[in-house]
Amino acid sequence: MNSRQCHRITQSFWFQITTVFILMATVIVSVQMSIFANAIKKSEDRVFERRLSLYKEVAQQGFRYHEDHNGVLSLDLLTTAYIGYQNLPVDIRQQVKADWLGVDEVWMRGSNDEFMVLATRDPAGTGNDTIYIVENISQLEASDEEGAQQLAIYSLAGIGMFALACLSMILIARRLTRPLMQLSNLLQSGGEDDLSLLATPKHSPAEIQQLVHSLNRYRQRLTCLIERERSFTSYASHELRTPLTVIRGVATLLGVSSEPSFVARQQQRLARASNEMNDVVETLLSLIRESRQEPMVPTRINRAFVQQIIDDHQPLLQEKNVRIHINLTNEPEVIASEPVVRILLSNLIRNAMAHTYEGYISITLDSDCLKVTDSGSGLNPKVSQHSGYGIGLLIVNDICRKYGWGFSLISNSDQCGCTARIDLNETCRIPHP
């Protein structure tokens, strides 16, 4: 295993969880062992204190009824009672004060013997004599060898349980992080351009499921953004053809004649084509944005507006026997900018002109809908709706979707040509008074 692999393992989530657990377990076990050792020590001291308390009355009775005690009374092989501070062994007197009362441990100098000493007043005495009960507890406690053996046994048992707990934690950490590892492997296995939805790993907790759901939503948004960028490229190349053609034509005509009136007309055409290009770009940019940020400006669709669009695309009808009718029953006013409405109608009219070779094109306007009917080649029966009729109708569909208008493309009842219909809903239409 090289240093890079070691670094990757040490930086892994499961390794960090295991490390934290081991450190916490070490601290907890150390504290518990210290508390346990102190508890045993205090428990032993309490036992000795209770033994000395029981001997207190025995010592008082002994000193009262045995006049030959000489200040010292043996209670058992390990316990001796003394009355008066002066009767205590020298080593003990050096470790306790004359006015001290209570219970404490003392050590005999020059030996390893440990004694428990209780000092209490003699209630039956004539003076302020103090009774001292001294017990040799060295023989009652475990020896150093026995203590070492017990400590070794407890330590080995603790180490074994600690190792078992650490192993269990490693397995638990691996199990908890397995869905994350599966998700990471799934992300790494995909290509750079792979934005397909991710599958939720099996037996994953709710947090992992939420993470996968958020990643899928993010991927869907990225996919939509990429599609919008592609749409903008396609839409721009489609919509800019007409003004670019005008610009190229003006450039050619300006080289033919230098008559002032002729040049002025061409300059007007050039300015209009330039403005149209700017409007197209701005409209298409607003079309592919996620939110609708352009101002809510109403646009009235009248006969002159429609006629201008027809004139711009009149070259498509050259050498064709096609009549165009404008049926204006009302002048609808929609809440959309003029470039948006112009692009919408231009694509409908351009599509009708491109697919009609003889007959008619009828443009009908009222307050509720807009219809473009032609007697052209009609719809392909194998293609549903507008999906087979080029990018122009796709732009129309996207505009209608954004502004909440209904768009349909159906064959005429006489099986000759088709009708493109746009239904203006109440949120995006201002009724004509």
CATH class descriptor name of the largest domain: Alpha Beta
- Spatial strand sequence of the major β-sheet: 1-2-5-4-3
- Number of helices in the DSSP assignment: 10
| Rough outline | rod-shaped
Q: Give the radius of gyration.
A: 51 Å
* Helix percent band: 40-55%
Tell how many strands the DSSP assignment holds: 13
Find the CATH topology of the largest domain. Answer: Heat Shock Protein 90
Q: What fraction of the residues are assigned to beta strands by DSSP?
A: 15-25%
- The total domain count is 3
What are the low-pLDDT stretches, counting only 5+ consecutive residues below 50? 382-389, 426-433
Q: What are the secondary-structure elements, in order, as H or E?
A: HHEEHEEEHHHHEHEEHEEHEEE
Query: Class by helix and strand content?
Result: alpha+beta
CATH superfamily (homologous) name of the largest domain = Histidine kinase-like ATPase, C-terminal domain
Explain the layout of strands and helices.
Blueprint: H1 3-10, H2 13-65, E1 72-74, E2 79-83, H3 90-93, E3 102-107, E4 114-121, E5 130-136, H4 144-189, H5 206-239, H6 241-254, H7 260-288, E6 298-300, H8 303-312, E7 321-328, E8 333-335, H9 338-355, E9 358-365, E10 369-374, H10 390-403, E11 406-411, E12 418-423, E13 429-430
Parallel strand pairs: 7-9
Antiparallel strand pairs: 1-2, 2-5, 3-4, 4-5, 6-8, 8-13, 9-10, 10-12, 11-12
